[in-house]
Each structure stands twice: as C-alpha cells, then as structure tokens.
From TrEMBL:
The keyword Lipoprotein does not apply. It comes from the Eukaryota. The chain crosses the membrane at residues 7-28, 210-230, 237-255, 293-314, 334-358, 431-458, 479-501, 579-600, 621-641. It is a multi-pass membrane protein. One of its GO terms (cellular component) is plasma membrane. This is Choline transporter-like protein. Choline transporter. Choline/H+ antiporter. GO terms for molecular function: antiporter activity.
Length: 685
C-alpha cells in the first residue's frame, strides 16, 4: 500500500490547524457570559464580578407593558430601559405617589429609587421630565425572579388572574389598569414556569431511576448481540415468513373484495359507476358501489402477481442475499471487537460537536456592545439606528420620536475580525460537517477493512489476521486519511449548501413569490437526492479503499461500475437487509420497552418493591425505548457494513476467480452451493 490523495490530506491537516486557530481567536475575543447573564441597557452584565453590578444579579424592566411576550423579554430586546437590581419589587408603587410622599415617608422613596437609574436621587424633578428621561419607572409591581429577570408575580385566585391578590393596579401615568392587560405575557410566563416545574420533576425521575435505565440498555445490548447471532440461523426463516405473510394478507384482501363485490349484487344503486355519482365528500358512498370493489380486487391481484413473479425470477438472488446475511453474522462472530467500534465513532463525533458548539458561542459573543434606538412609534425614522447612550438625550431623536430609548442591542464591532464573524461562523459550520463526515468515513473504512480480511482469508478462521480491526484502523489512518477526507469534503459541501437553502427557505417563508418558493423547494429536493447518492457512493468507495488501497476517485469509479454490473443483486440485498435489520430494531426496542413498562408500572410482582417512586413513569420508559433503539442501531450499523463489504467482495470474487485450482473462490461453501458452479477447491470451511 501507499499513501493516497496526499494533497487532500495536507489540505485537511492545514484546515484542522486553522480550525484550532479559529477556536483560539474566538476564545480570546468571545465571552460566553453574554449568553448566560442578562445584560442591562448599558451593555453591562448583571452579577458580573468586580463591577458595580456584582451584587445586582437580576434584570428589571422599567415598563413591562411594552414587552409583547416572555419570548421578547428573554431572546430579544424590550423597548424599555433595563437595569440590574439586587432583588425584584415586592409591592405596588408609582413614582407619582412616592414623589408626593417622600418628605414624610422617606423609606418609600429609598425603596423605590433602587429601581431607578444608578445615582438618581432627585425626587423634586418633575414627573414629566423623569418619565421622559426614563430616570425611574412610572410604576413597580410585585415580581419574582425567573431566568434572572423580574417577571410579575402572577397567580390565579378563584379562576381570576391576580398580582399580589389584586386585579387592578396604577400605571403611574394617571390610569388604573386591569391585571388582564398582562394576560398575554402572563400566559406565556405561566407556561414557562409550568415547564420549569415539569423539568424539575423529570430531573428527579432521572436521578432516582438512572441505574434501572442503564440495566435496560444493557439488556438491549445483549438482545442486539443475540439477534445478530441468531440471524445466522433464522435470516431465511424470518424473511420467508414475512413474504408469505404478505402474500397471504393480499390473498385475503382479494377474497374480501370479491365477497363485497358479490354481496352487492342486486342491491339498488350498486351498479352505478364512479363517473355517474361524481365527486363525493363522504367516501363511504364509493364503498357501496360494485365497481369500487372490482377496482380494488384488480389492483390487489396485480400486486399479488408481481410479488409472485418477482419471487420466481429473483429466488436465486434472494437466496444469495440471505446467505450473505448469514455470512455476515458468522464474520461478526469471528471479529466481535467490531461491535464496539461505534463507540469510537460516537466519541469522535461528540468531540466535533462540542468543539463546534463552544467555538460558535465564543464567536457569537465576540465584540463590543452596540446600542440602537428603540422606539414605540413604527414610523420613527431613527428606529434601529445605532446610537451613543452617553449623548443620546442631547440629540433630537427624543423630540422627534417621543419615548425612544438608546438601548443595548447586541455585541459587535467595526474591526476586521468583527466584520467577518458571519464568515467565521460559516467556516466553523463547514469544518464541523467535514470532520463529522470524516469520523463516519474512518469508521466505515475501518470496519470494511476488518470484514474484507475475513472474506479474503482462504481458510476461515485460520487465515484471519490476529487483530483485524486494529490493523484496519492503522491502515486507514496511515495510508488513506487523504482519501477519506476527500470523500468527506464532497459530502460536507453538499450538506452546507442544504443548510444554506434551509436558512433561505426559513427567511423567505413569508414571501408571496410563488416562483421563489417553488425554486427553493426544487433545489432542496435535488440536493437531498444528491446527498443520499453521495453517501451511497462514498460508503462503497471506502470499502474498495479498504480492500485495494487505491485513491478515492478510482475506488468510487470501480465500486460504482461493480455495483451497476450487479444492480439487481444490490437492490435485492439492500431491501432484504433493511427489512431484517428494521425488524431487529423494532424487536429490541419494543421488547425492552414492554419490559420497562411492566417494571416501572409495578406490574412485575418480583420487583414491585424495587420500583422507584416516579412523578412520570413515561420519562424513564421513553428513555429506555429510544436508548434501546439507538443501541440496536449502533450494533446493526456494524452488521449492515459487514454485509455491504462481503457483497462487494463476493462480486469481486465472482469476476476475478472461476473456482479452479489456479483461481479458487474465497466465498463460503453455502454461497458456492447457491451459485451452482464448480466445486470449491479443497480448503477448510
């Protein structure tokens, strides 16, 4: 062997080094606290150490009525002044009332001014000027902190929405308002609070049932192993039972259609045609027609004939497919370590996802605070323009757009780095896709090399290398990193285009241009098909790389033409394998799920006392079912790779050898018997 696709290997290594450099630069400029901690109208973090807000960990909104919903409060910016406070208000109060009584009730003023701008302590300033300059809120209402933000303390009393047991409050502008004015925000907040309560209960359920979940997943792993072992003996039986079951069901359908057709004979109106009665919204009307049941019977008869003819003409290829499935089970039995290789792929992908996510967060939080004009008036020409909070009150904006505020919008900057953050995010996503596809390609090539060493061993298992999986992994890394990176690169480019198309589709959802939507839909469909085709080609190219050690393009070409020369066998093997593996996943997930259901609902008397007390028994149950399916999928993906590798080896074996002493077949005796060709040269089975 020799190194393949060296140029791509060098580019791949350079890109990885650049990706590391991008992560370092993002780490230097970024600050994830901008995501974790709320930010006030001055761009300062609430609760940040060594600042004036160190003990002020909660964000307070001057006029929460201006905020449309909790989603605006949490994700976007509400068009009102926002300050960091140490605690939320616990009472109703208005600036008008506090100002009027500050001389003989200074405690009320001292309490109220902690929700004013820092340093403001001038109760003599007119109410109009205070509200204009947003020095203080016009009102405060009893609130409680949630997500480090002050939300009204809503509660329901006798079916009536209240705040601190009151249904009305003063808005500080001379009006008495009903608490129902906050209903939209209240409903959203209550839903979020309910979700938090459910989340805590789910967390508690996981905390007391995690070891039982692990036991269930271990049982799923053992069942998956058992299913793969039994496929050696039951693959044919399962497949033929299913096929004859389908034939029997369709046969029953034909008989039932004939019975309905004959039963309607002589009934008035049953001899009418579909054309006579036209379109009817009640489809039961069509079932009263003999013509309908005749059409159903003809269709089912056609399907039945097609299935029977396919079984007659494809019987030999189906037998080959079943023999390859059995051979795959035998190969895994000799190389059991391959069943645990998906753990390596999972860890590599987990590392890629973690690095991408951390880099994306640091890139998103790079930059200096940017302030924009937030105006209540939709026609304000200064809305969403950048501004300077230090000089904002001296400009004409507040006069032309009453109530406008210069508030923090996001983090950005004017430097070269900040200008190209979006490009860096795209690069981050692209390299992430490249690395994930490379990890998958490495796994496929490694497994293919291990199973190919089994097939091309003349005497099985005596001629199988000592450590086939580790040897294959070493060959893939040492010689074929460039080829694997090349295949992963092509797939990553297509996937990135699909991501961009999805983004454009999301942005253009509200557009009325039908042609644009149609064009996007066509492009998405085309690139989806292209991605599926490339995955199929890449998978078989990696198998050929593992067998012959050639570069990616040559391997892909040879694999494609080899499959085209055996296209019927490919189709039959693919469907038979898909069916049996899907059946196995359902059996494993369903079997373990039923067992978990009986256990967590205390229906197994032996373990009734061991069952933990749960808030929602469906939490561990769903976890067990989904986890069992993923465990089975991990094991069966190895099996699918094994069958695909053996199939390509089998096709190569047929084309290169003729069964003579000089060119003996390497296939198993069962495969050779199905082909009905020359006898195998003497060798150990």
């Amino acid at each position: 062997r020799h190194c393949t696709d060296v140029i791509c290997c060098v580019i791949f290594i350079v890109v990885i080094l650049g990706y590391i450099a991008l992560g370092v630069v993002a780490w230097v400029h970024g600050d994830p606290r901008k995501v974790v901690y709320p930010t006030d109208s001055y761009g300062q973090f609430c609760g940040q150490k060594d600042t004036l807000n160190e003990k002020k960990t909660i964000l307070f909104y001057f006029n929460i009525l201006k905020c449309a919903s909790p989603l605006v409060l949490i994700n976007l910016q509400c068009p009102t002044t926002q300050l960091c406070v140490s605690k939320c208000p616990d009472r109703f109060a208005t600036y008008i009332d506090v100002q009027a009584s500050y001389r003989y009730k200074p405690d009320q003023w001292n309490y109220f001014r902690q929700f004013c701008k820092p340093g403001f302590n001038n109760p003599r300033k007119s109410v109009t000027q205070v509200l204009r300059d947003e020095d203080c809120p016009s009102m405060i209402i009893p609130s409680r902190p949630f997500l480090k933000r002050c939300f009204p303390d809503f509660s329901t009393k006798n079916g009536v929405l209240t705040v601190a047991n009151q249904t009305t409050f003063k808005d500080g502008r001379g009006k008495t308002r009903n608490v129902t004015d906050l209903r939209e925000a209240a409903n959203g907040i209550n839903n979020v609070l309910d979700a938090r309560s459910v989340g805590m209960k789910i967390f508690e359920d996981y905390a007391i049932s995690w070891y039982w979940i692990l036991i269930a997943l271990f049982i799923a792993m053992m069942l998956s192993l058992l299913f793969l072992v039994l496929l050696r003996f039951t693959a044919g039986v399962l497949f033929w039972i299913f096929i004859f079951g389908v034939i029997g069901i369709i046969g029953y359908g034909i008989w039932h259609c004939y019975w309905e057709y004959d039963h309607l004979k002589g009934i008035p109106g049953s001899d009418l045609t579909v054309y006579d009665i036209g379109f009817q919204t009640d489809f039961k009307v069509y079932l009263q027609l003999r013509q309908t049941w005749l059409a159903f019977m003809v269709i089912l008869c056609g399907v039945e004939v097609i299935i029977v003819l396919m079984l007659i003409f494809l019987r030999n290829r189906i037998r080959i497919a079943i023999a390859l499935l059995k051979e795959g089970s035998r190969a895994i039995g000799y190389i059991m370590s391959t069943l645990f290789y998906p753990i390596v792929t999972f860890l590599l992908i987990a590392i890629c996802i973690s690095y991408w996510a951390v880099t994306a967060v640091f890139l998103a939080t790079s930059g200096e605070p940017v302030y924009k004009v937030m105006a209540n008036q939709t026609l304000c020409k200064y809305a969403n323009l950048t501004c300077d909070p230090e000089t904002f009150n001296t400009t004409n904006v507040t006069k032309l757009c009453p109530g406008a505020q210069c508030t923090f919008a996001f983090y950005g900057g004017e430097s070269l780095y900040h200008k190209y953050i979006f490009i860096f995010q795209l690069a981050n996503a692209f390299v992430f896709l490249w690395l994930v596809n490379f990890a998958i390609a490495l796994g496929q090539c490694t497994l293919a090399g291990a199973f190919a060493s089994y097939y091309w061993a003349y005497r099985k298992p005596a001629d199988i290398p000592l450590w086939p999986l580790f040897s294959s992994f070493g060959r893939a890394i040492r010689y074929h990193t460039g080829s694997l990176a090349f295949g992963a690169l092509i797939l990553a480019i297509v996937q990135l285009i699909r991501v961009i198309l999805e983004y454009l589709d999301h942005k253009l959802k509200g557009t009325q241009n039908s042609f644009t939507r149609f064009l996007l839909c066509c492009l998405k469909c085309c690139f989806w098909c292209l991605e599926k085709f490339l995955k199929f080609i890449n998978r078989n190219a990696y198998i050929m790389i593992a067998i012959y050690g050639k570069n990616f393009c040559t391997s892909a070409k040879e694999a494609f033409f080899l499959l085209m020369r055996n296209v019927v066998r490919v189709a039959v093997l693919d469907k038979v394998t898909d069916f049996l593996l899907f059946l196995g996943k359902i059996l494993v997930a369903g079997g373990v799920g039923v067992l978990a259901f009986f256990f967590f609902t205390q229906r197994i008397p032996v373990f009734a006392e061991e069952v933990p007390m749960l808030n929602y028994y469906w939490v561990p149950l769903l976890t067990v079912i989904i986890g069992s399916y993923l465990v089975a999928h991990g094991f069966f993906s190895v099996y699918a790779m094994c069958v695909d590798t053996l199939f390509l080896c089998f096709c190569e074996d047929l084309e290169r050898n003729d069964g003579s002493t000089a060119k003996p077949y390497f296939m198993s005796a069962s495969l050779h018997r199905i082909l009905g060709k020359k006898k195998l040269s003497p060798k150990k089975a």
